[in-house]
Specification:
By secondary structure, the chain is an all-alpha fold. The protein has a domain at about 10-195. The chain contains 11 helices and 2 strands; from the N terminus they run αααβαααβααααα. It has a two-stranded parallel sheet. This is Sec-independent protein translocase protein TatC. It is found in: Cell membrane; Membrane.
């Protein structure tokens, strides 16, 4: 049976398409979750708990950077004064399942974008439909870059900060497994979605909901927010805060550039 034209589709038809989008996306996530399960030893021991060790790549790099800038060992990390403990009967089981699902979602993200594109494509012009591969490629690339940024920058900086921050020497840091995993999940997904900002701005600009003037007007507020976030997740030194803040500010500036490009293109049309 031929698929209906978008103008002929009823609300229930759109709802049915949305339902199948969710079903196929869920299946894709589950398949990737099974893959994460198959490499779970490496996933947990090396990847997830990597930032809890002083030998983690980011800490070693920052130490070398500290030496090259003449700061000696000021930002070198030699120990992690905390332990991670499980305090719930089913804590490790729940964490195992949800972290596999999380990485399943990350790995299945390009396919989910493809499903979303197929869902919205009937409402697009023919020339816009041809940009499907470009949309999937750049959206996936930005998301993965964000996840990598969250893993190699935000998470280790956050771990180092909370591990070394203390109100008294009598207090010993013993973090729960759930709180650590929550921080890992939030940092990676939030960073991945934040790096999608240029794509979001592109579509909002196409719809006329966002303009370059609007983004420029609120640039100073965006800078303040970025600097606050960088100060929260990093140790109290300028080098670490700068490393976190610069990519986020570049993403915002790129969004302004994209909005300008879209606005000019819409005016010419």
């Amino acid at each position: 049976m031929a698929k209906k034209n978008v103008n002929e589709m009823s609300f229930l038809d759109h709802l049915e398409d949305l339902r199948w989008l969710l079903v196929r996306s869920t299946v894709a996530i589950l398949i990737m979750s099974v893959f994460a399960y198959l490499i779970s030893d490496y996933l947990f021991d090396t990847v997830i708990f990597g930032p809890t060790r002083p030998s983690f790549f980011t800490y070693v790099y920052f130490c070398e950077l500290s030496h090259s800038l003449g700061f000696a060992d000021s930002i070198c990390i030699t120990e992690m004064p905390f332990i991670i403990q499980n305090t719930e009967m089913e804590g490790q089981v729940n964490v195992f399942i949800w972290m596999c699902i999380l990485f399943g979602f990350i790995l299945a993200f390009p396919y989910i974008l493809w499903e979303i594109w197929k869902f919205i494509s009937p409402a697009l012009y023919n020339n816009e439909k041809k940009n499907a591969k470009i949309f999937i490629f750049f959206s996936s690339l930005l998301f993965f870059l964000g996840v990598v940024f969250g893993y190699f920058v935000v998470i280790p900086m956050s771990v180092n900060f909370v591990a070394t921050f203390t109100i008294s020497p009598t207090v010993i840091n013993q973090f729960t497994l759930d709180s650590y995993m929550g921080m890992v999940k939030t940092s990676m997904i939030a960073s991945g979605l934040f790096f999608e900002l240029p794509i979001i701005i592109y579509f909002l600009s196409k719809l006329g909901l966002v303009t370059p003037d609007f983004l420029r007007k609120y640039r100073k507020y965006a800078i303040v927010i970025v600097l606050i976030v960088a100060a929260i997740v990093t140790p109290p030194d300028v080098v670490s805060q700068t490393i976190v803040a610069i990519p986020m500010l570049l993403i915002y500036e790129a969004s302004i550039f994209i909005s300008v490009f879209v606005s000019k293109k819409e005016k010419n049309n």
